[in-house]
Each structure stands twice: as C-alpha cells, then as structure tokens.
Amino acid sequence: MVINTNIGAIRGSRMLRESNTQLNTSLARLASGSKIVSPQDDAAGLAVAAKFDAQISRNTSVGNNLSSALSYSQTQDGFLQKIGRALDRMSELATLALDATKTASDKEYYNTEFTDLKIYISDIGTKDFNGVSLFNGTGLDVTKDSDGNTWSLNAQNINGSDVTTVVGTFTATTADAVDTLKTSIEAVANHRAKVGANIQRISFTQEQVDILNENLSASVSRIKDVDVAQESTRYARYQILVQSGTSMLAQANLLPQNVLRLLQ
Q: Tens-digit pLDDT profile for the chain (264 aa)?
C-alpha cells in the first residue's frame, strides 16, 4: 500500500476523461445533426463531402441559368406565335384584295391594315430579353453542367429574307403577295419548331441537373448526417460511463485512507 501514487485514481481519471470526451462528442453530433463535428472525425469523408457540396452549389447556379434560358426561349416562342397570327391575317387580307368586285378604295382599306401588321412584325424583330436580342440570328450559349460546359440554342433571325424583309416589299394588292406570305408563314413555323427543340433540351437538362443534385445530396448525407437513433444509444452509454467513472474515481481517492488504519 502506497500514499504518494494512487494508480487506481490515475487510471480512473484517464478513463473518466475519455468517457467525458466521447459524451461531449456524441452530444455535439446530436445537437448539430452531423457525424463530422471536427475534421479528425472523418478527414477523408469531410474532403469528399466538401467537394460534393461545392458541386451542388454550382449545379444550383446551372439550374438558375437554365431557368433564364427557358424564359428566354419561351419569350421567343410567344413573339413568334404573334407573328404567325399577324401573317395569317395578312394572308387573309391579300386574298380578299384579289376580289375583282372590290374597288380600288376598298382594297386600300385592306392595304392599310396590311401595312400596320408589317410594321408590327418588323417591331418584334427588334425585341430583346433583359438586354439580349431575341431575333438577331445569334445562338445563345447555355450552361449545361457544373464544369461550365455550354451548348448553343438554335438561332432565330426573323429579320432575314424569310420573314420581315420579304413581307416588307409587298402590299396587300401585290399579285404574288399570297404566295410570299405562305412562304413567310412556313418560315415562322420552322422558327417555332427550333424554339420548341430548344425548350425541350433545356427541360431535359434541368431534370438531369436536378437528379444529379439529388444523388449528390444523398451522398453527402451518408457521409455527414448523424444516425440519431444510433447516436442516442451511444450518448446514453457514455453518460452512464461518465457517471460510473465519477463515482469510481471518488472511491479510488478514498483508498489511501486505508493506510491510516495501519498507523493507528
């Protein structure tokens, strides 16, 4: 029996300190909802999760870009639809102007509306979306992934010879106005088909990015998120160990007092 060195108390103190550390770690995990409270908990897992988190953030930005591109394309389609309706009406006016029973004055009424619709179509050709031209014939680059890769939308140019220029050289009473308008109507339909293809691809890309983010989030969750049921069991265990360790340390500190009995 010795007085100066209490091996039992030293050992009990060390074990109590370890249990207390584990208890605090378990408590922090339950409070934060994360298994990785500090880097040493899972250094490799933390690095992988950080990389995935960054990719998720970039994918979110890609989604925002795609939404803007979708709005851009839908705006194009809306204007093209209006142009199609205007051309349909112009073809009606040109057909009505072919009526031999109409006087020159009657035909001039048709021509007045015809001319206003031409101006309306020409005006649409100058429209933009947030300062970006809708119909200048340049394909807009769209971000498609978190690495910054892009693809170009099908370009739309209604200011070319297939729509506004050809129509602009005719009046309702021009002999071959009907044939020319038929060509323009077909050209607008082709433009809308291209815009529809753009919208379809944007929608598919959005779905792809959403699915990728979903899977990345699941991967991050498996690395970082704490299993509450499992951690609660650990917390209860460490809590008991701390309580029992505290009690045993108190008992170990009383052991040297037994030496006093030998000195009586």
A: 667 777 888 888 888 888 888 888 888 888 888 888 888 888 888 899 899 999 999 999 999 999 999 999 999 999 999 999 999 998 898 888 888 888 888 888 888 888 888 888 888 888 899 888 888 888 889 998 888 888 899 888 887 656 665 566 666 677 778 888 888 888 889 989 999 999 999 999 999 999 999 999 999 998 888 888 888 998 898 889 888 888 888 887 777 777 777 776
Residue 117, classified by CB atoms within 10 Å of its CB into exposed (0-12), middle (13-18) or buried (19+), is buried
Closest CA to 183 of 195, 173, 170, 194: 170
CATH of 43-224, one of 1.10.3720.10, 2.60.120.10, 3.40.50.720, 1.20.1330.10: 1.20.1330.10
CA distance 114 to 184: 14
Whole-model pTM: value is 0.77
Q: Where are the domains of the chain?
A: 7-31+228-263, 43-224
Query: Which is it for the CA torsion 130, 135, 137, 142, positive or negative?
Result: positive
